[in-house]
Amino acid sequence: ETGVTQSPTHLIKTRGQQVTLRCSSQSGHNTVSWYQQALGQGPQFIFQYYREEENGRGNFPPRFSGLQFPNYSSELNVNALELDDSALYLCASSLGRLAGSYEQYFGPGTRLTVT
Amino acid sequence: KQEVTQIPAALSVPEGENLVLNCSFTDSAIYNLQWFRQDPGKGLTSLLLIQSSQREQTSGRLNASLDKSSGRSTLYIAASQPGDSATYLCAVSNYQLIWGAGTKLIIKP
User: Quick one: pLDDT at residue A96?
Assistant: First the structure.
């Protein structure tokens, strides 16, 4: 059984650029959630996808968008990068539409630095 | 709005001590509560998950309790070791996880 993987592990971008982060969910899991973790803080929920549709969203602007593919892997896209977008981005997969009611399994994260 | 608080923010203890980390939450309508460990610059490792109908869970030297009525959970670590040094986060869930800011734990040899 393969765990949750994320790519890339580290990324440096310039303010105003766009970035795509990728996540492969654990085998058999149909729900993916994305979180942003700023330094010294707990993660903040961005959004989750269930069977290719957005199934909940946190307090993030529309320039944060996502996709989930038929194999349940997922992308997080961020447009018009700002300095405050610098953070660790975590992906978690779980089984079931209500992601919070099931145990979530986390990937190692992507460290994004915006300069 | 659910809010999760972890106290203390940081804790330093000698090796071998038993210790308790605290997590409080404001809304008792949760599916479950999870405790995670995070090493510096790394992702999250799930330690224990307590369903809302449960009172506690145990794994090795770790024991987590849940009191929904008072909005509290504790993580008890027995016989602490330097390898336990990490940040410990709790998260409560309805349809998403709401996180505390974590307790940074240092175990001194």
Answer: 73
Per residue in A56-109, pLDDT (tens digit) is: 899 999 999 999 999 899 999 999 999 999 999 999 998 876 656 677 889 999
Q: Which of A7, A36, A45 to mutate to test the interface with B (most CBs of B within 10 A)?
A: A45
Burial grade of B91 (CB within 10 A; 0-12, 13-18, 19 or more): buried
CA–CA distance, B48 with B63 (Å, rounded to integer): 8
Residue B83's SS3 state is: helix
**SS (HEC) of A69-100:** CCCCCEEEEECCCCHHHCEEEEEEEECCCCHH
A42/B100 Cβ within 8 A: yes
Residue A111 corresponds to which amino acid? R
| B86 residue type, one letter | A
The length of chain B, given as a count of residues = 109
Q: Where are the beta strands (DSSP E) in A42-86?
A: 44-50, 53-57, 64-68, 74-78
Neighbours of A76 (CB within 10 A): 24
Judge: A104–B4 Cβ closer than 8 Å, yes or no: no
